[in-house]
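QA checklist item 7 of 12: single-chain prediction sanity check.
[x] sequence parsed
[x] length recorded as 330
[x] structure emitted
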Amino acid sequence: MIISTVGSHSALQILHGAKEEGFKTRVYVIKGREDLYKRYPVADEIHILENYDEMLEISDEDTILIPHGTLIATLGERVVDIPLKIFGNRQGMIWEMKRELNLDLLEKANIRTPRSFYPADIDTLCIVKFPGAKGGAGYFLCSTPKEYQQKSQDLIAQEKVSANDVENAQIQEYIVGVTMYPHYFYSPLHDKVEMLGIDRRYETNVDALGRLSMENTSIDSTYTVVGNQPLVVRESLLPKILEYGDNLRAMSLKLFSPGLIGPYCLELALTPDEIIAFEFTSRIVAGTTLYVQGSPYSKMLYGEDMSMAKRIAREIKFAIDTNRLEEVLS
């Protein structure tokens, strides 16, 4: 069996973890970007693509594809039509990318979320997010309907977003708190949720603005993620973070059976009073790459180095050995 992924996002980690568990690996990469996977020898095979649409034409019974954010960002809802076997529940990616479904799952899972607004109702500082896994590209802050309309039209004029993106944007109350992203893994083979690590995202240029004086605040903030930082939280916060992960998995089973399988993540903000979730992702997130040698949390769970990618590969290996592969694929 070959474990494969698309050459972007968290591919280096995914392929490295698969090789650690003894699998043959393959990367599907856009032409001109293959040098990275030659310099880091994690892929046994490099398959060159002219464009991501070609992923909709590739079929191989001996290959398992590990999805990540690039597939969602480039293929959108067509991601469910990829012919390859996919690790996890591909329906989870639809619930992730559709903002209204994403929020619906969080609310039904009894997870605190920010207030949402229609454009005409904006009466406080809000953050505007566009559909799909764009890594924060185009997100902006606004406090009034007029400001929302002006900034939206400016982004359309600059061709940074489409009119359809604006129509389907999510407008949420801006939460002043510490952001963090816990990495969960649900194993249907052992029926348990694990929390393997936590990261923070480093965003341009919003993180750099904190270093400037108030005289420089005319700079437009941007939220494109450029990197990730490791994080360990106060131990007293862990029970609620674990509860959120359990609730999300349990409710996903009810809404799109068999629910979330394998890696998923919550985007959280911690205020002095509560833990609030902005959205969830239904697959591996790039911040897990911090922990190729495992995090403190995965070390305490396994007593060995355990990255998210290695955990995926180990689940697949156990599924093969116990003739239960169909339970972790879609």
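[x] summary fact logged: The first strand starts at residue 2 and ends at 6.
[ ] second reviewer sign-off
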